[in-house]
Amino acid sequence: MNSNNSNSIESVLQEQRVFPPSDNFSSKSRISSFSKYLEMSEMAKSDPNKFWGDAAREELHWFKSFNKVLDWSNPPFAKWFDGGKTNISFNCLDRHLNSSTADKVALIWEGEPGDKKKYTYKQLHKEVCKAANALKSIGIGKGDLVALYMPMVPEAAIAMLACARIGAPHSVVFGGFSSEALRDRLINGEAKAIITADGGFRKDKVIPLKDAVDQALGGGACPKVESVLVVQRTKKNIAMDDGRDYWWHEIVDSQADDCLPEQMDSEDCLFVLYTSGSTGKPKGVVHSTAGYNLWSHLTFKWIFDIRENDVYWCTADVGWITGHSYIVYGPLSNGATTVMYEGVPRPSNPGAFWDVIQKHKISIFYTAPTAIRAFMKAGNKIPNQYDLSSLRLLGTVGEPINPEAWIWYRDVIGGGRCPIVDTWWQTETGGVMISPLPGATPTKPGSATFPLPGIEADVVNSDGDSVANNEGGYLVVKRPWPGMMRNVYGDEKRFRESYWEYLKPSDNSYMYFAGDGARRDEDGYFWVMGRVDDVINVSGHRLGTMEIESALVSHELISEAAVVGRPDDLKGESIVAFVTLRTGAEANENIEAQLKKHVVNEIGPIAKPDEFKFTDSLPKTRSGKIMRRILRALASGDEISGDTSTLEDRSVLDKLRS
Ligand code: 6R9
Fold first, then answer.
1. Out of 82, 149, 223, 377, which residue is the most buried by the measure of CB atoms under 10 Å away?
2. What value of ipTM does the predicted structure carry?
């Protein structure tokens, strides 16, 4: 503990359980021991240019080889693999066509109503080529930004790959965003075309995507948009604007099924993806071609230890970075079979996920803590009705996972036999940065464990100096990596200030600041403690949200918790805990006393919540992250300010207010 250093975040919770990989898993895995991991890390550290250069040459196809691995002469603007020419759609498709992978299933898709499609690599290649030719036929070419506003249908992945093929950067906007959110992103990115659908199915309802596009474009708000390509999904009646709107099946199906991939410079923009940002307008995160390709490819291979017969499923939406890197690009670049599911668990089908696992014999399953906590809340009965024995590896991403949710995931879903990879990363990092390697790393529930080879992560104070073990601080990355974001679209200043100049090391070096707090334990394990914006200051002790929440979730009656600070004359801030009870449990004064006692036992009196608010649900972003900023305003009785367009369910606010 260190309460004198105002830069640090105190760590108050200790987790002692350790789960080494089983011999059975390790012996078959690519990186099969911790010493191999250390060896790779050492190689990457001692000669990074050789490490990344060799990886790029071995793992990707190049039309023209690069001259330089990394150019960091103008930080924070990095150039990776300068002089090289490649194309990610070629790496994901064409290069598999000369082997038996050509006839392997690339994509398995299931719609919410239960309709299904499968594409082999050969078939997917043809579909992508047709879509690429269709885009060209409506005047889209290299450098033109194409926005995608799509349901989870195969055409979403096909459209991304088609854009990449012709060198048109894509900007996927999550299909659950409103027309205003879409409009902001279309204007900011200067999109020339939009690919959408007549609608999508979500929780047994039709989401009217095309109507939202029409609204976004209404009143000439986005003069740069010339055309809209519409996939027919729901057969809902929609308006089609002559000369602007085209049906996908009318202009794609008749195209030639071959299209030469554009030879892209390594640093050409591959896509722009907006992150919400906790306040202010969303940031367009810019990723480039070769570095992103390498990073999504390599991380997928290392972390999921992909095997020839794996059926891999990531439950994210393609509208998020997780969908980009780990539904589409990472798996396809590796020649894996990737599953895409349009639905989510819903009252008419609470076991939807387990049903998909059983039906498609999923072997690797990658989901988010928010989903795991929701399943835990509903109890074991539903998953226990399904055969989940095909699973061999589980992953999580999106938020810190509370140790109890981790244990539940391991026992109930993984049958105690599957390693869990808790993967820490961000839209900005392009791919996973800190994660166990499933055959090599002994895991600790709630810890993302160690940085991947080549990733120089550290925990520092605001002067950029490393803090001691078990002292919390800022999570940073001290060396460029291939998958790093290249800029904020149209806002260099914001790129510098948010990520590279927030911390000021005395030697003026550049380190990437992720916005998260973390600590490293005595064994070197990283524990992400939540966003630093959310840190609570109680009597001079700065506490991360994750640890108090995990203590609450470890109580048998609690499934989910979010803690925030409320201004307090005496203590600086007092702790308000919003908690969700497990199904069947009831809130009463007795519970409050029990929970306080529980937190005091688990952590100590410093972390004892001063007030509890019981709720059915917490305000979350559409990708499932708890929005503590909103809870903070509610707890203090303030107006909710800043951007709330990413809020999943507005009715949660009204419920919480009452
Ligand atoms: C991939 C993704 C990034 C933020 C990140 C952090 C949180 C993601 C996490 C995690 C703890 C993990 N986060 N994975 N925190 N442990 N395994 O989620 O990207 O939407 O940009 O969010 O999510 O706070 O900074 P993105």
1. 149
2. 1.00
